[in-house]
Amino acid sequence: MRFLSRRLVMPNDLNYANSLFGGRVLEWIDEEAAIYAICQLETNCLVTKHIGEINFESAAMQGDVVEFGLETKKVGRTSITITCLVRNKATKKTFV
């Protein structure tokens, strides 16, 4: 798996518990996967059809740098299946 992108967890990314809001992570995953698929397929004519299993394993806090690892699992005639792992850049601890 290649880790291609990073984001800094900012105050506006936090939930009421002062950890990274799950919805924000899903937004980032969707965007990162779209960019990855665009680069793999060399077209920007894509939509997200399905987001599968999501496991929140630990919390990211303000100031953490998270990185996104993406990998192609399958390419079909009209689809691409991608796996994404989100982890702490410094500790390598998996968030999602």
TrEMBL record:
The keyword Endoplasmic reticulum does not apply. GO terms for biological process: acyl-CoA metabolic process; fatty acid catabolic process. One of its GO terms (molecular function) is long-chain fatty acyl-CoA hydrolase activity. InterPro entries: Cytosol_ACT, HOTDOG_ACOT, HotDog_dom_sf, Thioestr_dom. Keywords: Hydrolase. Residues 1-96 form the HotDog ACOT-type domain. It holds the Pfam family 4HBT. The lineage of its organism: Bacteria, Pseudomonadati, Pseudomonadota, Gammaproteobacteria, Alteromonadales. Belongs to the acyl coenzyme A hydrolase family. This is Thioesterase superfamily protein. It comes from the Bacteria. One of its GO terms (cellular component) is cytosol. The keyword Hydrolase applies.
